[in-house]
Amino acid sequence: MTGVPAGHNQAVTDSSSSTDSSRSAAYWNESHAERAGGSHDNFQNHPLIQAYVSLRAFGSMVGHLDVVIAELRARTSPGDRILSVGCGAAVKERALARALPDRQFIGMDIAEEALESTRQSLADEGVLNVSLEYGDFNRLELEKGRFRAILGLGAIHHVEALEAFWEGCHHGLTSDGALLAQEYVGPNRFQWTDAQLEHCNRVLDEIIPDAHKTHHRQVVRVPLDTIIRIDPSESVRSAEILETCEASPLRIEGRTGAGCALLQPVLMNQIRTFDPTNWEHNLVLSQLFVEEDRLMSAGVLGDDIAMFVARPS
Predict the structure, then answer these.
(1) Burial (0-12, 13-18, 19+ Cβ within 10 Å), 195
(2) How many Å apart are CA 98 and CA 8, to the nearest integer?
(3) Distance CA 173, CA 286 (A)
């Protein structure tokens, strides 16, 4: 097998329409349900990967959500409203709401079925400062100045109408508000660069034992129709996130990178084979870290994950 994102059994008949909201919603209703059942395979869920990303981005082993909490505590006040786009099952939003119980969090998602089940679970858990709203990010319509902060924690790379999205965020933020993002900004639709293909396949041969190659033994550019069939919104314009934000009414105030141009293509859909308590497995991951750092230092690879703060200009 090759480095293709794991698919679903959803029937899709029109692979040419990447903006079909109903298909995206159907995919995410299914995907959020599977994640709630524990079947999601995000390579960043591994604690050693999280530590690596934190060290690259922040210079310490601080939790990614801890950084968001600290930023929100500094940039917002009690009673402020904070929008989180692409909330799904609201896992991150619950953690943020518990850490900042005097702020009001509004989660937004295109998957209405997921929103309904999440509303019920929030009520069952007694989480009172999180509410959920339906929204299509390609047609983002926000009340002017409603939010002191907007969060994009892994959802913005699913937006195709980026220019309209940034305009909507600018409209919805207070004049002193901020957008906080932690996003995949690598090649659109996982169409890996020549350098990524060369070095990912080399490390798969030289570093990764066969026991970990349960999903793919080679990284290739996945055919676009396959990507679109699996998820019409996947990384649709990910490589343009930063440049379109910089060209929008928002101004990027701070930015840091977290690498992963080597790690993601190699480890996606097979990170589960790496047991965090197995030090031989951790040694393999550490070797990948060393190799990615070497390639980044040489200018061969860049950052496929970025964290940034943008404010109304």
Answers:
(1) middle
(2) 33
(3) 41
Q: How many Cβ atoms from other residues are within 10 Å of residue 171's Cβ?
A: 17
Residue with tokens 């996130």: 241
Rounded CA gap, 51 and 74, in Å?
24
What would the pLDDT profile of 20-72 be if each residue is shown by its tens digit?
Answer: 566 555 554 555 555 444 434 689 999 999 999 999 999 999 999 999 999 99
Instruction: Going from the first residue of the chain to its last (313 residues), give the mean pLDDT of each consecutive group of 10, the final group possibly shorter.
Output: 43 37 55 47 90 96 95 98 95 96 96 90 95 94 97 96 98 98 97 98 98 97 90 94 98 97 97 97 98 98 98 95
pLDDT in tens, 121-136: 999 999 999 999 999 9
Structure tokens given for 61: 């082993």
Contact 141, 168 (CB under 8 A): yes
Fold designation for 21-312: Rossmann fold (3.40.50)
- List strand residue ranges (DSSP E) for 221-303, in order: 250-257
Provide the CB-side half-sphere exposure for 33 (13 A, CA): 13
CB of 104 closer than 8 Å to CB of 80:
yes
Longest CA–CA span in the chain (Å) reads 54
Sequence spans of domains, the chain: 21-312
Q: Is residue 153 a contact partner of residue 92, using CB atoms and an 8 Å limit?
A: yes
Q: Is residue 133 exposed (0-12), middle (13-18) or buried (19+ Cβ within 10 Å)?
A: exposed
Strands 250-257 and 173-184: unpaired
Neighbours of 173 (CB within 10 A): 25
